[in-house]
Amino acid sequence: MRGDAGHPVRLRFAKRGKIRFVSHRDVARAFERALRIAGLPVAYTAGFAPRPKLSFGLALGVGYESDAEYLDVELRDPTDPGALPGALDAGLPPGLAVRGAAALAPRAPALQEAVTAVGYELTPAGLAPDALHRAAAAALAATTLPVATTRKAQPVVVDVRPSLRHLAVDPDGHRVTVEVSTQPRPARPPEILAALRTLVGVAPGDGEDRVLRTHQWIERDGARHEPLAADHAPPAPAGAVTRAPVVLTS
Question: Taken in order 96, 102, 105, 108, is the CA torsion positive or negative?
């Protein structure tokens, strides 16, 4: 979706708790249902099987949580963005929550093209605080961090160091915050954790590694923008009419 016609809006939403195990396709269905319940004037594609004009940002792995997911929706009529979080939350399942909304400028770049950096909070299982501190220091000092992984169903060795912009251990020593570039190919959270374990010779623990996406950034001309603040529409003319969502009750 590029906003060539209609009135595009961008949503920021969280994905927390058990719903982290739900697939991307099911999340899309949940939002399609919430949009219908809210009575929003969603624009549809043309053709034999019209679909709502929705465009998600960078894919989030199944099992990961996030406070920074984004969705662009094209509407047929201007709608008050401030009313969207409450209206949509009423139709979303527990664990999905809209945290903000903004009107987009026409022809705004797609999220998957615009986002240049992503932040995560990683909680590795079975990696003691002292080992995590040592691994982080070694990772920052390294020029390469090769990791054996799988891409497109093929075993490969990838170097995660070029995309690793920032890495720091939280004061409690149980979590690590990282920031990675999305181009040319972002390092994946499991690959980063595998590299840290390799540096200190620690095997994966019996528990579950937890991954929380905390930020996505759009960077242009030396400045970085949170996606709700980037490409927003100019202020509406004085006296312009916007509609509010009408939540359906049946």
Answer: negative
